[in-house]
Write a structure and sequence with these properties.
2 domains; D-Maltodextrin-Binding Protein, domain 2; alpha/beta
Length: 280
Amino acid sequence: MGSSEMDTVNSMNRRNAVVGLSQALTAGVMGLHPGVGFTATQGPSLLRLCFEQADVRPWRTREGTGLNFSLINAVAINVGVRVEYVPLPWKRCLAELKSNAVDGAIGASFKSDRLEMGAYPGGKTPDASKRLYVERYVLVRRKFSAIQWNGRAFSHVDGPVGTQLGYSIGEQLLSMDVLVDDGSSSIAELLQKLMAGRVSAAAVLGNELRYWMRQEPKLADKLEVLPQPLVEKPYFLMFSHRLVETSPALANEFWNSVEQQRKAAPYRLIEAQALEGIAP
């Protein structure tokens, strides 16, 4: 991807991003972030961060656009580091984090077994104030199908519930004795499986589903979202154990800056506009 493609907000129009981002929030994201070559605190001047090679709108896309990159780019400038973004399948991204092949993984919800793979801000009990964003899982079904979710329990389940491969919602469903089909690598594949009747319902991220319902009218005609969300949770930038052990001051400064930049007026504005842009 060329720098002109990465620097233009127009490349995000089809993905419902917003116009008018500042220079700090629109730096290129599929290579080296154009920051300075030193750190405010002792630590490496370059951080390699992996992210899922899939669209999770409006937070990120496989091409390397979205709100997560805008936020992290602003943090990198504030802290004084460069960032290299590495797109990978999600399971491999976490495996690379565990092996210290990358310095961090973008967009990880909390799961206790992921503590073996890397570190959350706040440690074993993540500090939600240091989150990148909050997202919810919803249950979508074919119209007139029987499956129900009342916010506490399922009923009239007549087949497996589909999820995307490696997503944390799968374990939650299994803990409720729900049969899970986690063989879909993307939401597009999962929704096609639902339309074909191969799963009774699908547990998907709410904002990404809103995007698809807006882009594909046939989905809105044939599918419906149940009113009670399955779960809402914060998502974090995880750092590798090696980075936290060798450069704890840098890790903490970066996490603290995530909170500061996320609460800052420029980012809050583009986040609100992006979320509004994907509404049906």
